[in-house]
Amino acid sequence: MMNNKIAINGFFGRMGQAIYELSLKQNFDVTVGVDLKEKLSSNLDLKFSDNLSEHSGSFDVVIDFSLPEPCVKAVKECQKLNKPITIGTTGFSAEQKKILTDAGKEIPLLLAPNMSIGVNASLRSISELSKVLSGYDVSIEETHHKNKLDSPSGTALKIAEVIAEARHSSPSDINIKSFREEGEVGVHKTIFRSSDDEIIIYHNAYNRTIFAQGALDTSQWISKQPAGLYTYKDYMEDIS
Ligand SMILES: NC(=O)c1ccc[n+]([C@@H]2O[C@H](COP(=O)([O-])OP(=O)(O)OC[C@H]3O[C@@H](n4cnc5c(N)ncnc54)[C@H](O)[C@@H]3O)[C@@H](O)[C@H]2O)c1
Fold first, then answer.
1. Interacting residues of 83 by C-beta distance below 8 A, sequence separation 6+
2. Of 33, 115, 128, 168, which residue has the fewest beta carbons closer than 10 angstroms?
3. In a structure prediction context, what are the per-residue pLDDT tens digits for the chain, which is 240 residues long?
4. 3-state per-residue secondary structure call for the chain
5. Is the CB of 71 under 6 A from ligand 1?
6. Residue 89 Cβ < 6 Å to ligand 1
7. 14 CB less than 6 Å from ligand 1?
8. Residue of 155, 149, 197, 195 whose CA lies nearest to 176
C-alpha cells in the first residue's frame, strides 16, 4: 500500500471515479470521498462528506478534479489543515489562479491542466519545435466530450503557454480551435505549418486512465515536497 492516504475532491465525477478505480488496482489508499451532498450515496467502505475538513484525520493528501470554485475552497481548507494537494481541475479565472499561487507559499500544491505523461512529454517536443521552426505558423486544435465546461481546454492553453515561452511571444496570439463531440476523452493537435510542409504533434487519450495515473502518482510525490507551487513538469523532471 502506498503510504499517503488520499481524499478525492469531486469523487463522483468522471475523473474522481477513474482515479478511485485505478487506486484499487494499484494499491493506492483512497480513504475519503468528497462531493456535493446530493451525490453522497455509496456502499463503499470509505468516509464521505461534502466538506473536506470533516474527515481531516483520515487523509494525508488531496486530489482535486472538481470545478474551479470547489477546488479553491479545497485549497483554502488544505491551507488550514496544512495538507498537500494535487489539482487536475481546469478553467480557473486569473483571480482564482492567484489564490492557488499564493497558497503555494504555504503548502505543497501541484497544478497540472493535463496529468498524462504522454501530453507532458509532447510539451518538450512542442517547445523544441517552436524554437527550431521559429518561422513556422503554429496553431492548436482540441476536441473533447460535450459535457466539458471550459473552452479552450486547460491543455490547449498550456500548449499555447509553452509555445509562447519558447518564442518569447504571447499565448493569446496563438490560434486555438475547440471542438466538442460525443464521448471524446481528449484530442490535442499542435500544428506547425510553412508554405512547404506541415508537422503535427498529435495526442489522443483513449480513456481517463492516463490522467488518473498522473493524479495518483503526483499525490504521493507532492506529499514529500516542501511548500511550493509545482507543475507536472517538476514531477516528471524529478523522477526521470
Ligand atoms: N488535469 C487533467 O489531466 C484533466 C483530465 C480530465 C479532466 N480534467 C478536469 O478535471 C475537472 C473535472 O472533470 P470531470 O470530467 O471529472 O468532471 P465531472 O463534472 O464529471 O466531475 C466533477 C465532480 O465535482 C463535483 N463537485 C461539484 N461541486 C463540488 C463541491 N462543491 N465539492 C466537491 N465536489 C464537487 C461534481 O458533483 C462532480 O462529481 C474539470 O475541470 C476537467 O477539465 C483535467
1. 56, 59, 60, 61, 62, 107
2. 168
3. 568 999 999 999 999 999 999 999 998 999 999 999 999 988 888 999 999 999 999 999 999 999 999 999 999 999 999 999 999 999 999 999 999 999 999 999 999 999 999 999 999 999 999 999 999 999 999 999 999 999 999 999 999 999 999 999 999 999 999 999 999 999 999 999 999 999 999 999 999 999 999 999 999 999 999 999 999 999 999 998
4. CCCCCEEEECCCCHHHHHHHHHHHHHCCCEEEEECCHHHCCCCCCCEEECCHHHHHHHCCEEEECCCHHHHHHHHHHHHHHCCCEEECCCCCCHHHHHHHHHHCCCCEEEECCCCCHHHHHHHHHHHHHHHHCCCCEEEEEEEECCCCCCCCCHHHHHHHHHHHHHHCCCHHHCEEEEEECCCCCEEEEEEEECCCCEEEEEEEECCCHHHHHHHHHHHHHHCCCCCEEECHHHHHHHHC
5. no
6. yes
7. yes
8. 155
55, 144, 158, 203: the catalytic one is 144
Cell triple for residue 141?
A: 486544435
CA 139 to ligand 1 centroid distance, Å: 27
CB 159 within 8 A of CB 140: yes
Catalytic residue, chosen from 55, 148, 188, 203, is 148
Distance between CA atoms of 213 and 217, rounded to whole angstroms?
A: 6
Reply yes or no on whether 148 is catalytic: yes
Instruction: Kindly list the structural domains of the chain, giving each domain's residue range(s) and its CATH number in brackets, ordered by start.
Output: 6-115+209-239 (3.40.50.720), 117-205 (3.30.360.10)
